[in-house]
Amino acid sequence: MTCTTLRAVLLVLCLSAGLVMACLRPAAAMTVFDPTNYVQNLLQAVRALEQIDNQIRSLQNEAVMLENMARNLERLDLSTLEGMVSGLTRIGQLMDQARGIAFTIEATQAALEQSYPERYGAEVTHDVLLADAKQRWRDAMSAYGDTMRLQAGIARNVESDQAALVSLVAASQGAVGVLQAQQAANQLLALSTKQQLQIQSLMAAQYRAEALDAARKAQAEEQARASFDRFMGEGKAYRAQ
């Protein structure tokens, strides 16, 4: 029996008792039953039941609130961080394993000074010019090879990124609380950042290859000038008889 039904029954009893006692004539010899007190007791019982009912409702509301809090604090049972870090590590390793000029300021500066001089002196030999030309050609070819290997590595990562994206979107849509939704959003943001870093790495490798090829062509002009000066300086130019 619910509290509302019980209150209704008690109210009916109160009214019934009041009507019955109003119809009875008081006996002068004895007073055993006090209808007024009886009605007051019943009313107090009704009020007590109302308080209990209010307390039950309050406890029910608190239980719902706690359940919602627990749901909002539930952690997302999905993490793609390890895969993202692994993918970026592979890209970093490919860049570290560059077969031509390494992706460091020191290595680049040393290579420029050795094989890409601004100007050759008059004492330069043919063997030096030939060795530098071969080295510049190897640098350019290695740079393009590094770019292609980096492209292959990024293409491999894209496949795993697609699977991670599907999982994260599904987790975000099925999040049961604020924390799960936020964690899914954070991982989606991290995935986007990873892809941007991959693109930046690829652009760096591509621009590096193009720069080395352009430097090789520019250096070929300087080498041609040095060869001509050397040829003229040795007096080997053709003279008409």
UniProtKB/TrEMBL annotation:
InterPro entries: T4SS_TrbJ. Residues 42-76 form a coiled coil. Residues 1-22 form the signal peptide. The keyword Hydrolase does not apply. Keywords: Coiled coil, Signal. NCBIfam families: PRK13874.1, TrbJ_Ti. This is P-type conjugative transfer protein TrbJ.
